[in-house]
Amino acid sequence: MDLCKMHFCKHMNGFFMHSITLPEKVKIHFASLAGKLLELKRPNGNIWYVGLVKNGEKLVLQPGWHDFVSANDVSQSDLLVFKYNSETTFEVLIFDQSGFEKSCKTEEKSSGSLQIITKDELSGPKPVNVASHLPASDLQENEEDDNSESDQISETRTPPLKENSGKRKERTSDARQVAGERRLKAQKLQQQVQPGNPSFLVLIKPSHILRSVITIPSKFYSEHLPKKSGSFFLHLAGNKEWLVRYIDRSYRQELQVKQFFLDSNLQLGDFCLFELVKGAEHTTFNVHISRN
């Protein structure tokens, strides 16, 4: 096969920020490039240098890959098409989930995109491989946090003052407005979920902030998550990722999310939608936030 006519593509699903694995059917054609720097060229002429490393039987784009992803705004469900030009050069086209090609950032200069990569990096730490996308979906609001721990602080209360009917109506109207706004936010977040990915919704309350813990709804846990403690990845738009601890307490399942809360600056009243990426080799949630 004429390598200059070879193209291959990769869907960006799950944990792709720091490395991707070349498809099985094309790796044999590029085995001689292992340990070398590849030139990834965008249509506007900008070039990024990314190391191709060998991990067992796999070929992995890793050293320098994070810079390429960040600079080109690569997001979940994007499709990247690699067109082999010659020797170590590939032209890379990026398409969003609707099939439209993403434009290049004109302010990016190729002279500033070179990253110094050491020989040790080209020998390659272990990458994370992502399997292909699979279908299934649901959305539910996480109400179990309220049952797992009270959000209220006990205090001595004085008897309530009598309230006239006008104020009661005003308060009722305000409560309905708030409820309507919350429903609208939840619906907008749900629209961001990819078909086939199950999800659950959390309204950030004092217990979340104090404990830095998210309780997973039991129905979601029983249908979609492993029945043992471990680690999950959280991915936020803007290509930021966290490795968080998942605790299975038999009576309650929790995500320990202290660093995620701090970095994402979550506040009381914010909505968080946790979207489970089906098909990822490592359990990964895309997180969508609607600020209060």
From TrEMBL:
Source species, domain of life: Eukaryota
Domain TF-B3: from-to ranges: 5-98, 199-292
Region (Disordered): 124-179
SUPFAM superfamilies: DNA-binding pseudobarrel domain
Biased composition (Basic and acidic residues): 164-179
Record Pfam families: B3
Keywords: DNA-binding, Nucleus, Transcription, Transcription regulation
Comp. bias (Acidic residues): 140-149
GO cellular component: nucleus
Protein's UniProt keywords contain Transcription: yes
Entry-linked InterPro entries: B3_DNA-bd, DNA-bd_pseudobarrel_sf, REM16-like
GO molecular function per UniProt: DNA binding
Places the protein is found: Nucleus
Coiled coil: none
PROSITE patterns on file: B3
SMART domains in UniProt: B3
Protein name as it appears in the record: TF-B3 domain-containing protein
Organism: Rhynchospora tenuis
